[in-house]
Design brief:
The chain has 116 residues and is of the alpha/beta class. The chain has one domain: STAS domain (Transcription Regulator spoIIAA, 2-Layer Sandwich). It is globular, with a radius of gyration of 13 Å. The model has no long low-confidence stretch (mean pLDDT 94).
């Protein structure tokens, strides 16, 4: 499946919904599509992984790059709606200690609203 990425700005938060495979063939496009939004107006990013079918180390690298960018800007990047097999990849890679992980977008939005 081809990677599909949709973005929606709400206030200072960017919601990124990802569908398909996040691997070495698709991670550059994914990174470019998200990074163009990471200007001074965006303080937080929610990456919704509900429709992700596969994530490779290259995809994890891009997610980490987004996290680091947001941290440098004084914001935060979180993930939501991870399928169990993606959660396992996060745990094995240690990303569950880097990213705050939420069951759905609403929980992630509430957390970010409470943090600000």
């Amino acid at each position: 499946m081809i990677l599909q990425v949709s973005t929606k700005k709400t206030g200072d938060t960017l919601l990124v919904c990802i569908s398909g495979r996040l691997d070495s063939n698709t991670c550059v496009e994914f990174g470019e599509r998200v990074e163009k939004h990471l200007d001074g107006e965006i303080n937080n990013v929610i990456c919704d992984l509900q429709e992700v079918e596969y994530v490779a180390s290259a995809g994890l690298r891009i997610l980490l790059k987004i996290y680091k960018t947001m941290t440098r800007q004084g914001g935060e990047a979180v993930v939501s709606a991870m399928p169990d097999f993606i959660r396992q990849v996060f745990e094995i890679a240690g990303f569950d200690t880097v990213f705050k992980c939420f069951d759905d977008q609403d929980e992630a939005r509430k957390y970010l609203a409470d943090e600000n």
